[in-house]
Amino acid sequence: MDMQSRIRQLFQASIDTKQQAMDVLAPHIEQASQVMVNALLNEGKMLSCGNGGSAGDAQHFSSELLNRFERERPSLPAIALTTDSSTITSIANDYSYNEVFSKQIRALGQPGDVLLAISTSGNSANIIQAIQAAHDREMIVVALTGRDGGGMASLLLPEDVEIRVPANVTARIQEVHLLTIHCLCDLIDSQLFGSEE
Ligand SMILES: O=C(CO)[C@@H](O)[C@H](O)[C@H](O)[C@H](O)COP(=O)(O)O
Ligand SMILES: [Zn+2]
């Protein structure tokens, strides 16, 4: 296949995945935004984590809350747990890579805070341990998953929210995760600061 055809095929696959996900995910994205708004109105903060591309997504989300999304508004409290290389390497070195997020959550998480836990497989051990730590700290979990939800899906409590992309290819799932993060930012801003339409 020539490269132009390959590119068109990748664009089409991304469009198709988003089209299939739109109606399935919309109610869950709305519910997640309400959980987040409620936390922010009650002095809560957002912690976020993921591996690889999902680490980038976790940071993308926190920067849009801390700095800005599409409008001028006050900074909102969010911390990506993927950025402190000294903390992450020491936890991985002294304990286990599986604990790099959970140990930070046990230190920083407060009841009523929200954990945005991102994994396309739902099976990354450090994300599973992060969810367990969040529950121990009485936080609410918003899980961005894919495939069959993996081990993460079965760990979630009734008050948690799973946003599971109906797809099996990691890159396609990640592309919908990013769109979901932008939806969450838009919904948080409009609920807290009014609709701009
Ligand atoms: O971005 C990509 C692939 O698109 C990779 O870096 C990918 O995020 C990594 O392989 C992750 O370790 C996958 O973890 P997960 O989504 O299964 O939790
Ligand atoms: Zn990627």
From TrEMBL:
<feature type="binding site">
    <location>
        <position position="64"/>
    </location>
    <ligand>
        <name>Zn(2+)</name>
    </ligand>
</feature>
<dbReference type="InterPro" id="IPR050099">
    <property type="entry name" value="SIS_GmhA/DiaA_subfam"/>
</dbReference>
<keyword id="KW-0479">Metal-binding</keyword>
<feature type="binding site">
    <location>
        <position position="182"/>
    </location>
    <ligand>
        <name>Zn(2+)</name>
    </ligand>
</feature>
<dbReference type="InterPro" id="IPR001347">
    <property type="entry name" value="SIS_dom"/>
</dbReference>
<dbReference type="InterPro" id="IPR035461">
    <property type="entry name" value="GmhA/DiaA"/>
</dbReference>
<keyword id="KW-0413">Isomerase</keyword>
<dbReference type="InterPro" id="IPR046348">
    <property type="entry name" value="SIS_dom_sf"/>
</dbReference>
<comment type="function">
    <text>Catalyzes the isomerization of sedoheptulose 7-phosphate in D-glycero-D-manno-heptose 7-phosphate.</text>
</comment>
<keyword id="KW-0963">Cytoplasm</keyword>
<feature type="binding site">
    <location>
        <position position="174"/>
    </location>
    <ligand>
        <name>Zn(2+)</name>
    </ligand>
</feature>
<comment type="subunit">
    <text>Homotetramer.</text>
</comment>
<dbReference type="InterPro" id="IPR004515">
    <property type="entry name" value="Phosphoheptose_Isoase"/>
</dbReference>
<feature type="binding site">
    <location>
        <position position="60"/>
    </location>
    <ligand>
        <name>Zn(2+)</name>
    </ligand>
</feature>
<comment type="pathway">
    <text>Carbohydrate biosynthesis; D-glycero-D-manno-heptose 7-phosphate biosynthesis; D-glycero-alpha-D-manno-heptose 7-phosphate and D-glycero-beta-D-manno-heptose 7-phosphate from sedoheptulose 7-phosphate: step 1/1.</text>
</comment>
<keyword id="KW-0862">Zinc</keyword>
<comment type="similarity">
    <text>Belongs to the SIS family. GmhA subfamily.</text>
</comment>
<feature type="binding site">
    <location>
        <position position="124"/>
    </location>
    <ligand>
        <name>substrate</name>
    </ligand>
</feature>
<keyword id="KW-0119">Carbohydrate metabolism</keyword>
<dbReference type="GO" id="GO:0016853">
    <property type="term" value="F:isomerase activity"/>
</dbReference>
<dbReference type="Pfam" id="PF13580">
    <property type="entry name" value="SIS_2"/>
</dbReference>
<feature type="binding site">
    <location>
        <begin position="51"/>
        <end position="53"/>
    </location>
    <ligand>
        <name>substrate</name>
    </ligand>
</feature>
<feature type="binding site">
    <location>
        <position position="174"/>
    </location>
    <ligand>
        <name>substrate</name>
    </ligand>
</feature>
<feature type="binding site">
    <location>
        <begin position="93"/>
        <end position="94"/>
    </location>
    <ligand>
        <name>substrate</name>
    </ligand>
</feature>
<feature type="binding site">
    <location>
        <begin position="119"/>
        <end position="121"/>
    </location>
    <ligand>
        <name>substrate</name>
    </ligand>
</feature>
<feature type="domain" description="SIS">
    <location>
        <begin position="36"/>
        <end position="197"/>
    </location>
</feature>
<feature type="binding site">
    <location>
        <position position="64"/>
    </location>
    <ligand>
        <name>substrate</name>
    </ligand>
</feature>
<protein>
    <recommendedName>
        <fullName>Phosphoheptose isomerase</fullName>
        <ecNumber>5.3.1.28</ecNumber>
    </recommendedName>
</protein>
